[in-house]
Amino acid sequence: MAFASFDRKPTAAPMNDINMVPLIDVMLVLLVIFIITAPLLTHAVKLDLPKADSHVNQLKPDKIEFAIDATGARFWNGEPVTRAEAAARFAAEGQRSPQPEVHLRADQAVPYRHVAETLADAARAGLPKIGFVSEPEPTR
User: Fold this and answer.
1) Per-residue pLDDT at 20
2) Which of 8-17, 47-56, 61-70 has the highest average model confidence (pLDDT)?
């Protein structure tokens, strides 16, 4: 690099060296700073913490087997009930925590009106988990 000076001596050629001493000084200062601060970053307090088991106890919700046969008769877990009794039981089950799952089994010959009434009663009681149970088709 060429530097200008105020003296009138003619210089033969511009200076083409980089003075490395200041760069090395800065690098050594940074190295010393990192050597001093690195152990402070890994400083930890030794503690003997108590051991505890923290498994979450998830209660499995009960399931209600609700069936409707071809004549429109309703069954609550195998016990015959009327629509009014089923609606009252749905309302009672809707207040429980965790809410049970309703497994609805309907005969293929039952009028859809009976299935829709059952779905409406369960929804009115606040039971959102309703599953339809069916049999798989036989493979050919």
Assistant:
1) 87
2) 61-70
CATH number of residue 102's parent domain = 3.30.420.270
3-class DSSP assignment, residue 106: strand
Classify 79 as helix, strand or coil: strand
Amino acid at 54: S
Which comes out higher in pLDDT, residue 108 or 1?
Answer: 108
Residue 49 falls in which region: left (phi positive, over 0), alpha (psi -120 to 50) or beta: beta
pLDDT in tens, 100-114: 899 999 998 999 999
Is residue 69 domain-resident?
yes
Q: How many domains does the chain have?
A: 1
Q: Name the residue type at position 84.
A: A
Candidates 85, 98, 94, 100; CA nearest to 126 is 94
Strands (E), the chain: 63-68, 74-76, 79-81, 101-106, 130-132
Instruction: Name the nearest CA neighbour of 115 among 57, 67, 62.
Output: 67
Taking the model in full, what pTM does it have? 0.55
